[in-house]
Design goal:
The protein is mainly α. Helix content is 64%, strand content 0%. One of its GO terms (molecular function) is peroxiredoxin activity.
């Protein structure tokens, strides 16, 4: 049984169970820009989906982690399509069903096509080259896969990424890869289901 098919290890906390610190973090998550996003943040009882429920366990760290995610998603300079391409490549490398579920919705909202989403789910660098006509998007996809799998870039790979994205773009891309790998790890460890699939 894969981690995505296993029963959740963490009960989803309801808003009425939260202490003051947890409640402040909960409100920060649901009332921020994520609250109007392309995927549901809460279940019918108000419990948080995805990685956000676990963040409530340690609100001090949860505030910092969700704040980094909000900065990446809403205040970064990479275009939305590039950002979602990077996130979906991380989801594919980690085989993270929840990240794929959430960010395929976000990717569609950013203009990614079904063909592009399939390539990000199942493809490799050659497929990326055939699907993404925009050079920046191709470089984001290939560089993200390299970072997520190999955790480094050769001098040649780094030079290519900087040539297309700029050093600041490469910095932002490494932040995306690191953040979503962290979430993928937490989603795996806590056996967080895709909404509607064996969640409690």
């Amino acid at each position: 049984m894969s981690s995505d098919e296993a029963p959740p290890r963490l009960r989803r906390l309801r808003p009425d169970e939260l202490d003051a610190e947890q409640r402040a973090l909960y409100e920060e998550i649901v009332s921020g820009p994520r609250g109007n996003g392309p995927f549901a943040l809460t279940d019918d009882a108000g419990g948080l989906h995805g990685p956000f429920n676990a963040m409530l366990l340690r609100p001090t760290l949860g505030h910092a982690l969700q704040g980094l995610g909000a900065a990446i998603r809403y205040r970064g300079a990479l275009p939305a399509r590039c950002r979602e391409i990077a996130i979906l490549v991380v989801a594919a490398v980690w085989d993270s069903a929840f990240e794929r579920h959430a960010h395929e919705a976000a990717g569609r909202a950013a203009g990614l096509t079904d063909e592009e989403l399939r390539a990000l789910r199942d493809g490799d660098d050659d497929v990326f080259s055939g699907v993404f006509a925009d050079e920046r998007e191709r470089v984001v996809a290939v560089t993200t896969r390299t970072l997520a799998e190999r955790h480094d870039l050769t001098d040649e790979e780094y030079a290519r990424a900087v040539d297309v994205l700029g050093a600041d773009g490469v910095f932002e891309l490494t932040a995306i890869v690191g953040y979503y790998a962290t979430l993928a790890l937490q989603l795996r460890v806590f056996r967080v289901p895709v909404p509607g699939e064996s969640g409690r």
